[in-house]
Design brief:
It holds the Pfam family DNA_pol_A_exoN. With 421 residues, the chain is α/β, with parallel strands linked by helices. The protein folds into three domains: 221 residues, Ribonuclease H-like superfamily/Ribonuclease H (Nucleotidyltransferase, domain 5, 2-Layer Sandwich), CATH 3.30.420; 93 residues, HRDC domain (DNA polymerase, domain 1); 78 residues, HRDC domain (DNA polymerase, domain 1, Orthogonal Bundle). The protein has 21 helices and eight strands. The strands form two sheets. It has a six-stranded mixed sheet, sandwiched between helices. A two-stranded parallel ribbon has the order 1-8. The N and C termini lie far apart (55 Å). About 2% of the residues have low confidence.
């Protein structure tokens, strides 16, 4: 299917002339093997230079993907990098043995547009390798702006290209060596269709008058700074709602930090070193000795019994803290209170937010763009809770909104800020 035909096909398949949905079921063609065969994994300096030369000689955008070992390793490094470009074919690179050899590839990729799916997930691990795009196209974000009902790579490839990707290895331990052949086929196929998908989405966005919106969103993703360190990340421990007392919270904090240090040393995902449930259990039970600790669920296992003194030391540190060093039950917030309290605390703010949300919801329906892509909900709440001295447009820009969002949202927000209970 050509790109133009695909774009027209999706419009025809989702709506009829009156805008009502129609069902045109077409069985997708399974995509089972790379068109040019499975490439050899690149894992030597000489092979890296050859890949770089081939990609530099190719034409058009470069499809890129990366596989990590989330849930298995502490680090978020890439364990496989996949690339494809017209005229160059596909490449699979094992970055572990050639980590110091990415200079030529970085040079080859500095200029062409990169095509990624959910780019914000892969850009950090690619940046660790010295790979940074000069221009970006994010197929997932494009799908959201185009109003597609499902924006996972598999569903979009089925809907727009009539092909079915066999999934199943995305959550695998990609630090495994050697990588199984079926995993490599899966990885190669993820970039096999990205450029064609990009072309269909680009046409679809152009026809909808959203291409400039997408360009601004892609640039925001490309240039986004690293997120700041999270304050008290231990507070995200699953099940922490069971922990009520400050001394128990201190125990969670000490165990979490001890686990994090050990996980980083071993490059193992923290949850595989000690589950969150075990941290909460020990904090609530407050055992008074290592022997009592290993009577608790999870700590009875051989691995945790060997670490009993290590975990017990963390609990002892929490137990010896003076009262003024115990963590507070909650952190102070620089943002507005929960929305369900607005009506009591500031009825006018509640009225402003209700009016703004109604307007944004109407825009979402009119332009077929999810509400959260029209404007970050947190920014909308902040502006409605404490109206700015400046214009709504200036407040939106100060909060990081893109110009297309400002153009759409500022007029309705100006009106909403005048609402009173």
């Amino acid at each position: 299917m050509q790109s133009g035909d695909a774009a027209a096909g999706i419009l025809d398949a989702t709506t009829n002339g009156s805008g009502a949905e129609e069902n045109h079921t077409v069985e997708p063609e399974p995509l089972l093997a790379p068109a040019d065969g499975l490439p050899e994994v690149t894992e030597t300096p000489a092979a890296m230079r050859a890949v770089a030369d081939a990609l530099a000689a190719g034409e058009g955008p470069v499809a890129i993907d990366a596989e990590r070992a989330s849930g298995f390793r502490y680090s978020a490094r890439a364990y496989l990098v996949q690339l494809r470009r017209t005229g160059a074919g596909s490449a699979l690179i094992d970055p572990i043995p050639v980590r110091a050899e990415f200079g030529p590839l970085a040079t080859a990729l500095d200029g062409p547009e990169w095509v990624l799916h959910a780019a914000s997930q892969d850009l950090p691990c690619l940046a660790e390798l010295g790979l940074r795009p000069a221009k970006l196209f994010d197929t997932e974000l494009a799908g959201r702006l185009a109003g597609l009902p499902r924006v996972g790579l598999g569903p979009m490839v089925e809907q727009l290209l009539g092909l079915r990707l066999e999934k199943g290895h995305g959550a695998a331990d990609w630090s495994t060596r050697p990588l199984p052949e079926d995993w490599l086929v899966y990885a190669a196929l993820d970039v096999e269709v990205l450029i064609e998908l990009r072309d269909v989405l680009d046409q679809l966005l152009t026809e909808q008058g959203k291409r400039e919106w997408a360009a601004q969103e892609f640039e925001a993703v490309r240039t986004a700074p690293p997120p700041p360190p999270r304050t008290d990340p231990w507070r995200r421990t699953s099940g922490i709602h069971r922990v009520r007392r400050p001394r128990q919270l201190a125990a969670v904090r000490e165990l979490w930090q001890a686990r994090d240090e050990l996980a980083a040393q071993r490059d193992i995902a923290p949850g595989r070193v000690l589950p969150d449930a075990a941290i909460v259990e020990a904090a609530v039970a407050a055992p008074d000795s290592p022997a009592e600790l290993v009577k608790l669920p999870i700590y009875r296992g051989r691995a945790q019994r060997r670490l009993a003194d290590y975990w017990w030391s963390a609990l002892r540190r929490a137990g010896k803290l003076p009262a003024d060093q115990l963590p507070p039950g909650t952190l102070p917030s620089d943002g507005p209170p929960p929305v369900n309290r607005w009506a009591d605390r500031d009825p006018d703010a509640a009225a402003r937010l209700a009016a703004a949300r109604t307007g944004v919801a109407e825009l979402s329906e009119t332009h077929n763009v999810p509400v959260e892509n029209l404007l970050q909900p947190d920014l909308l709440r902040r502006i409605c809770w404490q109206p700015p001295d400046s214009s709504a447009a200036e407040a939106l820009r100060a909060g990081g909104a893109r110009e297309w969002q400002v153009d759409l949202i500022a007029p309705l927000l100006e009106h909403a800020l005048l609402s009173r209970a």
